Amino acid sequence: DAKTTQPTSMDCAEGRAANLPCNHSTISGNEYVYWYRQIHSQGPQYIIHGLKNNETNEMASLIITEDRKSSTLILPHATLRDTAVYYCIVRFPRSGNTGKLIFGQGTTLQVKP
Amino acid sequence: DGGITQSPKYLFRKEGQNVTLSCEQNLNHDAMYWYRQDPGQGLRLIYYSQIVNDFQKGDIAEGYSVSREKKESFPLTVTSAQKNPTAFYLCASTSRDDYSGANVLTFGAGSRLTVL
To answer: Is A81 helix (H, G, I), strand (E, B) or coil?
Structure first.
């Protein structure tokens, strides 16, 4: 699985959009980009994933650059409950590749009142 | 509701003792994983299993052992050989045949082990 690089920490004002970047310059053609978040002392929670196109769900939007070497997770209206560590992972999605999954240190997002 | 159950949530152990952390899932997932997390750190992979009766070492397997006798269960034993076992342990699972393409990891709530 491709390695990812994320900033260590970010701040965001409550109610504003939080934009979390991720670099994955060694991504291969069939690898997806996944985002998870971990609220303190809990298990990580899935947020969103994508391959090439931009994706949106009830939690967030994912913007993937055309060359797929980087992506941005967008929380459109951050709340205090969005304070967490956000992990960007690149991996193959299907069977045969359900092996080693690598989590980096992630980005600690602090949403401030 | 389907999910992953880890137990115990908190565990204290004396040095030199082995301890087993339980991980049970009712999601019918094929692959299961154990991660370790230290304060302020990301997740590090200890062991993973893609099918019953098979498992592979992750990045930090020394001092740990696992078994996968049933699809639903993937217990982790922290042995006395693990030199720094105090940590937060997370179990996860994913389906091998997720034809939606998502193949999302589901995590348990974690087990916090403290060695006294």
So the answer is: helix
Give residues 80 to 99 of A whose Cβ lies within 8 Å of B: 87, 93-95, 98-99
CB B91, CB B26: distance < 8 Å = no
Inter-chain CB proximity A42 and B109 less than 8 Å: yes
Residues of B in contact with A106 (CB under 8 A): 42
> Cα separation of A47 and A68, whole Å?
19
Tokens representing B81 are 């050989």
Task: Report chain B's mean pLDDT, rounded to a whole number.
Answer: 89
Residues 6+ apart with CB under 8 A from B1: none
Query: Measured between beta carbons, which residues in chain B are less than 8 angstroms from residue A94?
Result: 98, 101, 103
Q: Is A53 on the interface with B (CB under 8 A)?
A: no
**Sign of the torsion angle spanned by Cα atoms B53, B101, A31, A106:** negative
pLDDT tens-digit readout, A54-103 = 999 999 999 999 999 999 999 999 999 999 999 998 876 654 445 556 77
Put simply, whether A102 touches B (Cβ < 8 Å) is yes
How far is the CA of A13 from the CAs of A19, A44, A65, A105, in angstroms? Answer: 12, 23, 25, 23
Check CB contact of A40 with chain B, cutoff 8 Å: no
